[in-house]
Amino acid sequence: PSADNPNINQLKLARRFDLREIPPQPWKNGAGLTREIAFGGASAADFDWRLSVAEVARHAPFSAFPGIDRCIVLLRGAGMRLRARDGSFDHALTAPLDPFRFSGDLTLDATLVDGPCSDFNVMTRRGSWRSEVSVLRGPCLLQPADMTMVMCIQGRWQIDGVTLDPLQGLLLARSASEGRGDGGALLVVRLLQDDSA
Q: What is the full DSSP assignment across the chain?
């Protein structure tokens, strides 16, 4: 893996990233781009967990990922409607920073509401890993996890003395961290190994 989309299963220290500096990868169907923040596992294709941001340019299907649990968060734009082809759900992803969870086993059709949008995605291998996704807006203590990602969405944040502007973030391993912002929004993803497996 490259320095831009590392396999960081063995991360010991905080790793900083700027989403704008991560090279975009075009979708095979030409409907969007993905910026991969990080993954854990054997490879980017055979992952245990994966963190990324997608830019959706037009209506398109979402590929199925059997055995994977997904969570998606609208970051920018009017959003899209997600319809499962098996009819199990029809969800309007139009509220910014409101996490929506669904099974990666399903093939979806995404219909843009009003122009392109961007969204954050976390995928975890069911039975091995799970994610907790939240958006914080004030002083916080981030509880330890096997891996934590924080990304500034709005305003400016300080995490353990590191200043983050919008679209900048940190990958943190295990330790608790303190954060405070200026009234903006901080996206937090805690990745936890599933001991029940």
A: --SSS-B-TT--S-EEEEGGGSPPEE-TTSSEEEEEEEEEES-SSSEEEEEEEEEE-S-EEEPP-TTEEEEEEEEESS-EEEEETTSS-EEEE-STT--EEEETTS-EEEEESSS-EEEEEEEEETTTEEEEEEEE-S-EEEPP-SEEEEEEEES-EEETTEEE-TTEEEEE-SS-EEEEESS-EEEEEEEEE-TT-
